[in-house]
Amino acid sequence: MTAQDVAQPESAQGTTHTQLQQWVDEVAALTTPDRIHWVTGSDEEWTELTDKLVDAGTFVRLDESKKPNSFYAASDPTDVARVEDRTFICSVDEKDSGPTNNWMAPDEMKRIMTELYRGCMAGRTMYVIPFVMGHLDSENPMFGVEITDSEYVVVSMRVMARCGTQVLRRIEELGDDARYVPALHSVGAPLAEGQADVPWPCNDEKYIVQFPEERTIWSFGSGYGGNALLGKKCYSLRIASVMARDEGWLAEHMLILKLTSPEQQVYYVAAAFPSACGKTNLAMLKPTIPGWKVETLGDDIAWMRFGKDGRLYAVNPEFGFFGVAPGTNEHTNPHAMATINKGNSVFTNVALTDDGDIWWEGLENEPAHATSWKGQDWTPESEELSSHPNSRYCTPIEQCDILAKEYYDPQGVPISAILFGGRRKTTVPLVTESRDWLHGTFMGATLSSETTAAAVGQVGVVRRDPMAMLPFIGYNAGDYFQHWVNVGKDADASKLPKIFYVNWFRRDDEGGFLWPGFGENSRVLKWVIERIEGKAAAAETPIGHVPTPESLDTDGLDLRDAELEQALAVDAEEWKAEIPQIEEWFAKFGDDLPTQLRVELDGLKARLGV
Ligand SMILES: Nc1nc2c(ncn2[C@@H]2O[C@H](COP(=O)(O)OP(=O)(O)OP(=O)(O)O)[C@@H](O)[C@H]2O)c(=O)[nH]1
Ligand SMILES: O=C([O-])CC(=O)C(=O)O
Question: 335 near 376, Cβ under 8 Å?
Fold first, then answer.
């Protein structure tokens, strides 16, 4: 079948952008969809698609009075999270993908995937989604075009990115000057003539592939989150990190928040934590200390470029939140709750209540009965969880009642502090200030965290997750470290953000969290700002500057002195035990590890007396 044979629905407008049209035609010829639909982004289209998803049994419409214009979806039980072992960086030279990524030669990968794509959209509609990550009116709009055969992906992309005709028109206006990332996605479930569809089509064989030199993404087999919404992790982190390396900026797995002190001083903070380690919660934090205010700019991704004034400015390229549902409630994240309660959201792999609402572990008002994410009867006595630990809400960022007005500024905001952090039960204190950019880069490069349900695999295993980017660095991680070193070297040190390392997850001897976390993390933010202002005290330790117990504002906090001390403790023996692990981690990189990081490690060893 040729592209010309593919039936065009009346709504298909095509494009005057010859090269884009050519690519769409080629994909259609290969994948043989029944129809092609160019996504407009209109409200009518949303209604059409969500109705179609309801008819297919993929979506259940939630009660309008509880969650207007919102939908429940349950995925195939095998398609619930990112698949890191099926994710590839197919650089031309294997060395450029480095020791932390899966690699295959691009030609070989394309040969395999072309066969998988052949006829894979039969019986389905092929959607063409023009989108832009970041602002349409920015100096260099970061366009993408995702082709997908999943209505779920179209609806979710519409929440997560600025999509549709307005973007396509801009691409057409720019013509050959429009730089866009072609991103091809299929669930890999062709339908034979007359064959009924399943609610969640997917394929056991999955590939999530980035071609860094071509700045192209090919994804096959999964309909879920970061595997399928290709503007998110695949483009805004893996491909964008390659662009950032080449162009001298940073594409990072970071939230961005605006902090206003009681004296009305404004600071912007970015923070990198691995998936499901608290970015969304910190980004929307409700401070428990009087006079401090937090507003949100982003909860997952930050693109940071130097401004003319020499400071590092961050923008959030996304348009929605794709947040972890379990644990989210009125206490832990009241702003996320207010955002999703406004509706226009998609909930995946949570529980469906009998009165047409959603529920998950940790949410208030536990229902007496619900349908679990696996479609089974669920009651509080059930042994199985009602919701998958990586169940998600997908909701528009503009509904967030504490969205900072600067979100709309394509220039972004000047960052004063960068926080790195992960989940560690032991060893890592509540907060540590680095001595300088290089030391902060070392902290980031050696970041460690227990694995979570956000990726398929074992949960709770400590692994190194540099800058929380382990699954997202689109090139050799050794070169990525060098890029961070270079950013510091080329900048005016006095204007660079200060780097800190936090750990909300240290445990006491009974296994409870030592630090109450959530809104109380505002106390740590306050200390961070007071360090920047030169006001707060700190103790110098082998690993960096740690608050003295008195320097951290604990007014009104129900925390015993001994607990605070334990949360802040730097135990030399525990840190000595980290050294061989860091050495093993660094050994992976061979000569690609920047000398400066080896020098930092030697410094740490000397201070610990190793
Ligand atoms: N103990 C404790 N748990 C927290 C804290 N902040 C977040 N969490 C929990 O960590 C889990 C993940 O939190 P999120 O804020 O959604 O994580 P995220 O980093 O945005 O996750 P991704 O969307 O996967 O990138 C939730 O279950 C939270 O309840 C904290 O300060 N202390
Ligand atoms: O990418 C996803 O599927 C969800 C997400 O935000 C993450 O895992 O960090």
Answer: no
Instruction: Give yes or no for residue 3 having a pLDDT over 60.
Output: no
HSE of 451 in the Cβ direction (CA atoms, 13 Å)?
A: 15
pLDDT by residue (tens digit) across 8-19? 433 457 999 999
Q: Please state the rounded mean pLDDT for residues 120-133.
A: 98
Average pLDDT rounded to a whole number, residues 402-417: 98
Q: Report whether residue 327 contacts ligand 1, using a CB cutoff of 6 Å.
A: yes
Binding residues for substrate: 82, 224-226, 275, 390-392
CA distances from 357 to 155, 200, 352 (A): 19, 20, 6
**What structural domains and CATH numbers belong to the chain?**
3-57+84-247 (3.40.449.10), 250-319+403-570 (3.90.228.20), 321-399 (2.170.8.10)
Closest-lying ligand 1 atom to the alpha carbon of residue 323 = 23
Tell me the C-alpha to C-alpha distance, in Å, between residue 134 and each of 213, 231, 428, 571.
22, 10, 34, 43
Q: How far apart are CA 111 and CA 100, in angstroms?
A: 24
Task: Give the whole-angstrom CA distance, residue 549 versus residue 539.
Answer: 9
Distance from C-alpha of 496 to C-alpha of 263, rounded to nearest angstrom: 23
pLDDT in tens, 470-501: 999 999 999 999 999 999 998 999 999 999 99
> What ipTM did this prediction achieve?
0.96
The rounded distance, in Å, linking the Cα atoms of 184 and 33 is: 13
Measured in whole angstroms, the distance separating CA 511 from the mean position of its chain's CA atoms is: 28
* 300 C-beta closer than 6 A to ligand 2: yes
Phi, psi of 234 (to 5 degrees): -65, -50
